[in-house]
């Protein structure tokens, strides 16, 4: 792959540029810091408002559309290791958010189902996500949001999940 030439915004000059003159082009850094800050915000809001962590909300939302899924299917969809998904499922069962049982066709496999308490947590998590989406969309036009969504979607194409 040919190297990209530095844009004028990234080249050094004799005078330092003002923050408002050039956009920060350290995309990986900005993506990582942004992801961490959003994750912290989600975890803080989820714990106080929804009563579940962001990871638990992810499991609940997945199961909402994939009823009685295998633990491994949920883990794969959320890109969690098998041991991480097993631990997460165990904590959610203890918290009363999920029930689990052995698969009828393969006793080694475990299926998950949302409980009534899990459905209540989903409703609260939706409120948290609505607030988050409002914050993420704030100060951007629809055209700008389409570009951001296209860029983020392209990351998944350029760097597909392993496995």
From TrEMBL:
Recorded coiled-coil stretches: none
Alphabetic keyword roster: DNA-binding, Transcription, Transcription regulation
A single MF term (Gene Ontology): DNA-binding transcription factor activity
GO BP term (any one): response to stress
Cleavable signal peptide: none
Domain HTH marR-type: 24-157
Gene3D superfamilies noted in UniProt: Winged helix-like DNA-binding domain superfamily/Winged helix DNA-binding domain
InterPro entries, alphabetized: HTH_MarR-typ, MarR/SlyA-like, Tscrpt_reg_MarR-type_CS, WH-like_DNA-bd_sf, WH_DNA-bd_sf
One Pfam family cited in the UniProt record for this chain: MarR_2
PANTHER family with a match to the protein in the record: TRANSCRIPTIONAL REGULATOR, MARR FAMILY (PTHR33164), TRANSCRIPTIONAL REGULATORY PROTEIN (PTHR33164:SF107)
Record's protein name: MarR family transcriptional regulator
Organism: Pandoraea aquatica
Source lineage: Bacteria, Pseudomonadati, Pseudomonadota, Betaproteobacteria, Burkholderiales
């Amino acid at each position: 792959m040919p190297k990209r030439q530095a844009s004028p915004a990234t080249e050094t000059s004799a005078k330092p540029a003002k923050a408002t003159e050039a956009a920060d082009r350290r995309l990986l850094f900005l993506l990582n810091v942004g992801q961490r800050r959003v994750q912290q915000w989600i975890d803080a809001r989820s714990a106080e408002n929804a009563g579940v962590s962001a990871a638990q909300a992810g499991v609940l939302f997945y199961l909402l559309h994939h009823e009685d899924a295998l633990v491994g299917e949920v883990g794969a969809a959320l890109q969690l290791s098998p041991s991480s998904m097993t631990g997460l499922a165990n904590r959610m069962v203890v918290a009363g958010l999920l029930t689990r049982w052995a698969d009828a066709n393969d006793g080694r496999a475990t299926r998950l189902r949302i409980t009534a308490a899990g459905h209540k947590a989903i409703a609260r998590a939706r409120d948290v996500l609505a607030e988050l989406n409002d914050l993420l969309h704030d100060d951007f036009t629809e055209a700008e949001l389409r570009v951001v969504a296209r860029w983020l979607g392209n990351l998944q194409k350029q760097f597909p999940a392993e496995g």
